[in-house]
Write a structure and sequence with these properties.
Elements lengths: L1 H6 L11 H27 L13 E4 L6 E6 L2 E7 L9 E8 L2 E6 L4
Parallel strand pairs: 3-5
Antiparallel strand pairs: 1-2, 1-4, 2-3, 4-5
Length: 112
């Protein structure tokens, strides 16, 4: 906005840009940049959910008996898992409680 005013200040009036149009365009640019800054700030606050941490809270199926260690199948992948309490048979559903590296901690999901 300031650049348009300075650049055309010595030109005849008929060749100067309309100051209202320049002001509106400047305002719209500010709105766009502020909106982008707010969106980026919100994205930075969001927790990343990739890899093992994205699996916490999801259901998995035991591929081997969990006594308490074994293998579970979740979202098309096999994971090493440790059952919190007791044991689970092959094919039983378990819920992922936490993830530590490439190892999941799971617990049996009790049916109501």
């Amino acid at each position: 906005v300031l650049g348009a005013i300075i650049a055309f200040r010595d030109t005849p009036t008929e060749f100067q840009p309309n100051r209202i149009v320049v002001g509106i365009l400047g305002f719209l640019l500010v709105v766009v940049f502020v909106s982008m800054a707010i969106g980026l700030a919100r994205m930075r606050k969001m927790r990343s959910e990739t890899g093992a941490e994205a699996l916490v809270g999801r259901m998995a199926v035991a591929r081997t008996p969990l006594t308490p260690d074994g293998t579970v199948f979740i979202q098309g992948e096999r994971w090493q898992a440790e059952l919190e309490d007791g044991s689970a048979a092959e094919g039983e559903e378990v819920r992922v409680v936490s993830a530590n590296g490439l190892r999941l901690r799971v617990r049996k999901e009790n049916d109501p």
